[in-house]
Amino acid sequence: MAPTTSMGPASRWVSPVDGASLAVVRMIFGVVMAFGMLRFWGRGWVDEFFVQPSFHFRYWGLAWVPVPGEVGCHVLVWGTGVAALLVAAGAFTRASLAAFVVGFTWLELLEESLYLNHYYAVSLFAVLLLCTDAAQVWSVDARRRRRRGEVPGAHIPRWQLGILQLQLGLIYFFAGVAKLQPDWLACAQPLTIWMGRSGDVPVVGPWLAHPTTAVIMSWGGCLFDLFIPLVLRSRFRLWGWLVVVGFHVVTGSLFNIGLFPLVMIGLTTVFFAPDWPRVLQRRLWSHHVVARAPLTTTPPRLLRAFLVVFFVVQVLLPLRHWAYPGPARWTMEGFRYAWKVMVMEKTAVATFHVVSVDGTRRRTTDGDGELIPLQKKTMASRPEMILEYAHHLRDLHEAQWGTPVRVTVDAFAALNGRRSQRLIDPDVDLAAIEDDLRPKTWIVPLAPQPTCR
Amino acid sequence: MLSRALLVVSAGAIAVTGAALVGGCPPSTEPAPDVDRLAVVAHVGAEIMEPAFADLADKADVLEAQTAALCDGGADADKLQSAQDAWKAARKAWKTVEGYRVGPMDELRNFNSIDFWPRRQDALDGYLAGTDAPTEDSVRLGGVAGRGFPVIEYILWHAEDDLMGNLAYLGEGIHCAWAVAAAADLSTTLTTLHNAWSPDDGDFVGTLATSGQSPDSFDSAQTALDLIVNDLIGHVEGMKGIKLNKPLGDRDGAEPDPCDSESYLAHHGLDDLRANLDGFRRAYIGSVDGEPHANSLHQAVADLSDDALADDILAKVDEAEAALSTLPPPLFDRFTDAPDDVRAVRDVLGELHVLLAVDAAGRLGVTLTFNDNDGD
Fold first, then answer.
1. A132/A32 Cα distance (integer angstroms)
2. Does residue B27 register a pLDDT over 50?
3. What are phi and psi of A364, to 5 degrees?
């Protein structure tokens, strides 16, 4: 990126700050992501999730993203992991970050049932890092520049930290807003269900499984999400960060949330003073630090426009569920990309009925033999994936039987401890339904019933 | 200053929101009882599953003895009847435990050697056309196509109800000897399976009872409960899908094919399904006398529910049994002459599956699949 020098009065956000904290974030991000890719490969998930399924659920509007073959999937995972390592080292940083963004996002887009909020967050942070001078200090790139006789700056403009802080703040804030609903606050669900699983944890099990614990954790979690961005921006940021560590360690050990805690613990260090790593370095090693000429820069016009659009989208996406009737955790309309983290325990089953229009041929299937268990489980609770699979069954059978078909589904789901109810109108021919962003009138509304137990 | 103001305003907002929400959702008047998951899995293992595997091993011994007697000195009608009765008794015991896959059956991976279905007809006919006298070892080495209940059924009921036809088939070549060897192999397999459960041997009963307490056991009682419940859910799903939907032709969008149904030569298909349901009921209520035990899945679901879910599940099992009883035997014929009646049974099983996989699994916190790629 070629920064432009600000000639006007220096505002806070274009003022130069030490690039050390951004370098630490870059290193943590790269290492955790490299570990994540290695873990993904080591657990056999490349084959299980990408290679074995003969059918892949695709994101709306993104079905055109090509699915590599077996070798291609492995290469993509390894290539993304190597790119992450290069990011950590600060080697060819911008190219490595670009490769990581492409590789990681491509992998995400291959299979919709793999969607996780933290995967989405990773892609966003990688894009934002790409907008920064993340390799200004403590990087192979900086060393190479010095060898070439250049004097790399040790500073970055403050906005480069600010955009990461803003994204983190949005994630926490909207995760908190998503918890402002009766299931979470009044009924302590789904934490009551989840904490009940911990009853036989040695020593603390009975306390963990006690219903009051779920209530305390629900309210505590909501308050944490809503206010931690403010605390991290205040003079209590160290205490706030320690709370972040404690919160994510606890949730990471109690629930199955993969690398999300590590990602958030690492990235929230961006709220510390920009030179905190150097202060720490001086204290630990009494290392002499050379002060270099600071730069006061504003983002180039194009980058500024991009960041504005980026954050407008990031604010609007979590709000879009208001355009749809019913709770998003039931309809799943507006649920994704909205940081509705851990707000539902939704079990479901779906059985499809494919019948030729003349009634002479019929098939009943739940996807057995074609879908892997994760796909079946995820699809059954998500109307848009049910529709996608119904369309797949329509296309398959119309080709096989040579006649138009109707596709209906018996889909039942239970949300946060409620009794099961139909999720989809069983009389609706899904084969004739267009897959678009309009409200899905064929979703059966969530019946009002008390959920507390 | 701005931060402080935001904090105050936000705290006020959340307090008001919370109060409104609490008022809008009637809280429970009493705390959820503490469900002792360890007691449940220990009880189900010791009082239901292990005894059922012991009974199965005993009945497999009888089948081995009766099959040996059948072929000792030439088969006759009485000896054939005794062998067929022994097969049915052992088969019923097997179908009772078929859903108890947690532990030994999963670890020993011997399900297919007990009940590989559908039969590999060509391979089996090839074996039976041989001339070398089969032994238990040679049958075992031949693979699943020549082992287990379906193979013995094929030999004992080759001509279905035609007694003379069956006796004639038994008298040919190595047919009877293969049945003897297969029954011996089956008995050995099922004895091994029971031994793995038995407190006097592999002690999987003890493993379940020390879940979360011993490094040699499960990480937690919840993990053991997850496995047991998931196996039972899969069991009911299998009854609905593989055992009924497939022969109906509905699973694959094809014509009905009753030959996909189990035990059709012995006309034991309905009894298979009844035993399947009985095995489920026993594991669910934690008793064999029909009364739910205090340390049962039924009681755990009841304790974790404000509603009648636990009893609804039992009622659905009753309904499935009643629907089964409306089907006159043999089930084989019903797939073609009364497919809608079979579909009615299938649909009731589907409703039972929903109650288990959606409602009960949610209440028990049972994850339907284990995958730490899950999360938020």
1. 19
2. no
3. -120, 125
Domain around B70: 45-201
- Helix, strand, coil proportions of chain A in percent (round to 5)? 55, 10, 35
Would you say A334 and A324 are in contact if contact means Cβ atoms under 8 Å apart? yes
Strand pairing of A4-5 and A297-298? antiparallel
The total of other beta-carbon atoms located within 10 Å of residue B166's CB is 21
What is the predicted pLDDT for the residue at B372?
39
Q: Are residues B78 and B190 in the same domain?
A: yes
Residue B215 domain-assigned (yes or no): no
Q: Where are the domains of chain A?
A: 12-182+227-322, 345-432
Question: Do B138 and B61 belong to one domain?
Answer: yes
B358 vs A contacts (CB less than 8 Å): 347-349, 412-414, 420
pLDDT of residue A411: 97
What's residue B79's pLDDT? 96
A385-440 tens-digit pLDDT: 999 999 999 999 999 999 999 999 999 999 998 999 999 999 999 999 999 999 99
- The pLDDT of residue B374 is above 50: no
> In terms of domains, do B166 and B84 share one?
yes
pLDDT on residue A294 = 57
B77 and B154 housed in the same domain? yes
- CA dist., res. A54 & res. A372, Å (int): 9
Separation of alpha carbons A308 and A44, rounded Å: 39
How far apart CA A423 and CA A384 sit, in angstroms, is: 11
Task: With respect to residue B124, please indicate whether it lies within any of the assigned structural domains.
Answer: yes
Q: What percent of chain B has pLDDT over 70?
A: 88
B241 and B182 within one domain:
no
Among A5, A289, A295, which residue's Cα sits nearest to residue A158? A295
Q: What are the chain B neighbours of A450 within 8 Å (beta carbons)?
A: 25-26, 306
Range from A209-218, A252-261, A361-370, B183-192 carrying the lowest mean pLDDT: A252-261
CATH number at residue B285: 1.20.1420.20
Residues paired with B61 in a beta bridge: none
Tell whether B159 and B98 lie within a shared domain. Answer: yes
Q: Are A230 and A192 in contact (CB under 8 A)?
A: no
State the virtual CA torsion across A281, A286, A288, A294 in degrees, nearest 10: 40
Q: Are A1 and A306 in contact (CB under 8 A)?
A: no
Query: Could you tell me if residue B236 is inside a domain?
Result: yes
Instruction: Tell me the pLDDT tens digit for each residue of A50-107.
Output: 999 999 999 999 999 999 999 999 999 999 999 999 999 999 999 999 999 999 999 9
Task: Give which of B40, B14, B5 is closest to B364, Cα–Cα.
Answer: B40
For range A215-229, the mean pLDDT: 95
- The Cα B259–Cα A169 span in angstroms is 62
In angstroms, the CA A348 to CA A334 distance is: 19
Contact state of A258 with B27 under an 8 Å Cβ cutoff: no
Q: Is A314 helix (H, G, I), strand (E, B) or coil?
A: helix
Residue A260's closest CA among A249, A271, A272? A249
The pLDDT of A319-331, averaged and rounded, is 95
In a domain, B328, yes or no: yes
Q: Is the pLDDT of residue B32 over 90?
A: no
| Interchain contact A234–B (C-beta under 8 A) | yes
Question: In A, residues 48-77, which contact B (CB 8 Å cutoff)?
Answer: 49
Counting the structural domains of chain B, the total is 2
Residue B78, token pair as written in the block: 């009485």
Clarify whether residues B125 and B247 are in a common domain.
no
Q: Mean pLDDT over residues B329-357, rounded?
A: 96
Mean predicted lDDT score pLDDT of chain A? 91
**B354 and B253 share a domain?**
yes
Binned at pLDDT 50, 70 and 90, residue A158 comes out as very high
Return the residue of A nearest to B9 by Cα: A227
Cα–Cα distance between B174 and B135 in angstroms, integer? Answer: 11
Mutation target vs B (from A185, A403, A409; most B CBs, 10 A cutoff): A185
